[in-house]
Amino acid sequence: MDDTLKILLVDSEAGLHEAVSAALQRGGLRFTLQRVATPQALPDLLRAGPVDCLLCCMRPAGAFPADALPAGLRLLEEWLALPELPAVIMLCEPDDEQEGAGSGKGAYALRSLWLGAADYVLSDNLALLPRRVRSAVLHQRALAEARLHDAEYALALQILRGSSDAICVTDAEAQIVLVNDVFSQLTGYSYDAVRGRNPRMFQSGEHDAGFYAEMWRAIEEEGCWQGEVTNRKQDGETYREWLRISSVRNDAGEITHYVGQFGYVAAQRQLVERIHHLSQFDPLTGLPSRGLFLDRLEQALVTAKRSQRCVAVMLINLDRFRSINDALGQALGDQVLIDMAQRFSSQIRQGDTVARLSGNEFCFLLGELADPELALHLASRLQSLITRPVECAGHSVIVSASIGISVSPRDGLNSDELIKAADVALMRAKHEGGNCFSFHSHGMDEDARRRQLIEACLREALGKGEFELVYQPQNSLDSGNIIGCEALLRWYSPQLGMVSPGEFIPVAEDTGLIIPIGSWVLREACERNKAWLDLGLQPQRVAVNLSARQFRGDSLVEEVRNVLVDTGLAAEFLELEITESALIHDLDAAISTCRKLKALGVKLSLDDFGTGYSSLAYIARFPFDKLKIDQGFVRDITHNPANAAIATAAIAIAHGLNLAVLAEGVETEAQALFLRSRRCHAMQGYLFHRPLAADDYARLLASRERLHLGEVQAQGNQYLLIVDDEPSILSALTRLFRHESFRVLTAASCNEAFEQLARHPAHVILSDQRMAGMTGTEFFARVRQLYPDTVRIILSGYTELESVMDAINRGAVYKFLTKPWEDDPLREQIREAFRIAASKEPS
Asked: Best label site of 322, 409, 619, 664, fewest CB within 10 Å?
């Protein structure tokens, strides 16, 4: 709330004025606060200018009459007659929540709400006042806006009735239900003469059947038609008019009325256009709303059936969006929705539709699909697009989304069936933890039954000793040494077999079973680490994940203290991993809990960094020791510029805040070298070891095995990287440059080239244009973002001039050369490229 609020305080006591003012200032509100010392002064103050909030003491000091009822309630009864009463918040004493209850009308505090107060705040808890004021003012403004919309509708109807244009309204069966006076003056027909009749009675006979068929086709398919028409008056005289006919639909997308209007003037045209636009489009994002989306979906299904192609419906729900609204306010949440709408609009093909169906739910319509796999590719692109940070109001907000996809005719033949199928798929994606997409399948009933079975078995698993902890080592990227491990939960059920954590953890979270399971994990991990220390093995820290429910529990700090005492493990050898989603529910409480845990001496790490709401402002307030970069950003870090940029930014944030930084899910040496080159401290992943059982992990510690990474090549060497999926071309080019001063690297695919670039500081890259999976220009567009100082040259036998010239103009490609080549000119072109590369290096 950026504007300055005008607040009146009904009380003459200076001390209360100072206390209220201080509480509002601490809450970050901008405001003016004026005392009202007499009941007679209030109406004049309200008339003097708009007032946002009225704070009234239950027993105000000053010239206020008192009787059996507290003066504050008496004033509230009188204010009900005021025409423009702002939001009222009562300032009560603690006793007011009980006093007055014996009257049969409720305690005084509660009675104030019945009389119209927006809220009340107790005098001994004024810290709640800023939040209550914000909420009350926003609610009052929303009511005012709703009243304004009602007034606008009534005004629009009045304008239509009194318009200088002729207007005729019919029902869905084309029976006339309303005409205005101008219509009667122009046609000669009174309302009684045309009521219930079809407008074809006005036809002059000058237009053929094809003219009217085209008119109704446009009305049914596009929602309106306009053009010149010759009609006949009651006296038989013909006249020409510029006529516009629009269809009106309800929320279900059904036509309820048709509106014919002719003799437009600019003001009326704008009004009708505005009404039509609001009925079809979302006012916040400008995207089509549900009614228009359903209409286009039905049209797409008809077209697809005729052409024997598919239609895909893709429901997108932003994960944990409510927490962004709660933490940062609705204005910033609206900005996130607008930004997402713009991103989605950039991804649709001509003829496709993206709509906003409700609060944080969007929907794509993909028509004329030759292959349902195209929907998968779009979903993959959208997930990458959605996770790009939204920068607004000094905050960097990172959101993820769950996506459900249905495809006709496999999942449904009409719009209702397809949307229901997509919704089922969406729920499945959310149950898998969000930030993923899922196609609908007819095996969903089996999935539901399996979930029920998992819950039943899970309730007995702890008592039967079916859980086991495995330990995945964490390595320094500098020395390769093991510096710690993460305890990971595994479950083998005699009835279900090995159950994936991604399958049973959400069930445990939903049912609350995660609390006893989490307590067992914490104690077991601490006991095991103490046993390793007692054996004289290398001292190291064991990391334990805390679920959101565990973290928010009242007894967490005491539980951790007791486990450390019972097991004898020193606090410095325990690390607690906390996800972002566990923190933002209540920031102040989360900060307090983290500080209490730190006071015990344990280490704290922020897990899955980048997958939720990430803000430097809030991270800096927590006493973290480490950031863990989510494996989703590491998986394709060597060839995805967006994820590489996010990971690099996360590492920079960690360094700026003096935090250690660890990357999860590192599986290749190229990923590890890339992260090390960005100054990431540590890694965890299959590159070194899969998670190990406790005894196997103890043997690993005893062996002192470490991670061995290849060295990044010295900067003094010059490298040419040749990328081509034809072995004969790679061989010929390698022979061509074998006597040059630079070294030659080769790659048979773009993915292999990214691996090479992570290991070697290539200066010049020579790439084919047409390759499987990715073209040369697409490859260079990514290379330009990841390695901007390279000189990039296309060598191709195909002259795709438009895409290549576009890449050259954007700076992704330095030069375009053709196959077959001449040896000497090509050698000279590469030498010149190395001279350009050398000129870019800092002196």
From this structure: 322
- pTM value is 0.47
Angle at alpha carbon of residue 836, lines to 831 and 841, rounded to 5° = 125
Higher per-residue pLDDT: 595 or 359: 595
Lowest mean pLDDT: which of 129-143, 502-516, 637-651, 707-721? Answer: 707-721
Beta strand pairing call for 401-407 and 467-476: unpaired
* Closest among 785, 787, 768, 776 to 727, alpha carbons compared: 768
CB 394 within 8 A of CB 411: no
* Cβ–Cβ under 8 Å, residues 472 and 485: yes
- Angle, CA of 135, 139 and 145, to the nearest 5°: 145
- Using left for φ > 0, alpha for ψ between -120 and 50, and beta otherwise, residue 576 falls in beta
pLDDT at 712: 47
**CB within 8 A of 266, min separation 6: which ones?**
none
**Is there a contact between 241 and 209 (Cβ–Cβ < 8 Å)?**
no
Tokens found for residue 670:
């190229």
| Alpha-carbon span 32 to 6, nearest angstrom | 5
Is residue 775 within 8 A of residue 769, CB to CB? The reply is: yes
Rounded-to-integer distance, Cα 392 and Cα 681, Å: 30
Phi, psi angles (nearest 5°) of residue 273:
-60, -40
Angle between helical axes of 776-786 and 750-759 (0-180°, round to 10): 20
Beta-bridged to residue 247, according to DSSP, are: 258
In sequence order, the β-bridge partners of residue 627 are 606, 661
Q: Determine which of 113-127, 191-205, 741-755, 827-841 has the lowest per-residue pLDDT on average.
A: 827-841
Residue-by-residue DSSP string for 266-309 = HHHHHHHHHHHHHHHB-TTT--B-HHHHHHHHHHHHHHHHHHT-
Question: Could you read off the pLDDT of 2-13 as tens digits, one per residue?
Answer: 688 999 999 888
Q: What CA–CA distance (Å, rounded) separates 511 from 533?
A: 36
d(CA 476, CA 540): 12
> Of 520 and 814, which is predicted with more confidence?
520
- The CA distances from residue 73 to 81, 95, 97, 107, in Å, are 14, 15, 14, 11
Query: Which pLDDT tens digit goes with each residue over 277-312?
Result: 777 888 888 888 888 888 889 888 988 888 888 899
Q: Which two tokens stand for residue 452?
A: 């029920």
Residue 266: is its pLDDT beyond 50?
no
* Side-by-side strand order, sheet with 437-439: 353-358, 361-369, 310-318, 401-407, 437-439
CA distance 115 to 108: 10
CA distance 763 to 756: 12
Distance CA 843, CA 409 (A): 64
Query: Which distant-in-sequence residues (6+ apart) come within 8 Å of 310 by Cβ?
Result: 304, 369, 370, 371, 372, 407, 408, 409, 410
Q: How far apart are the first and last CA of the chain?
A: 51
In the numeric block, which tokens belong to residue 450? 């399996």
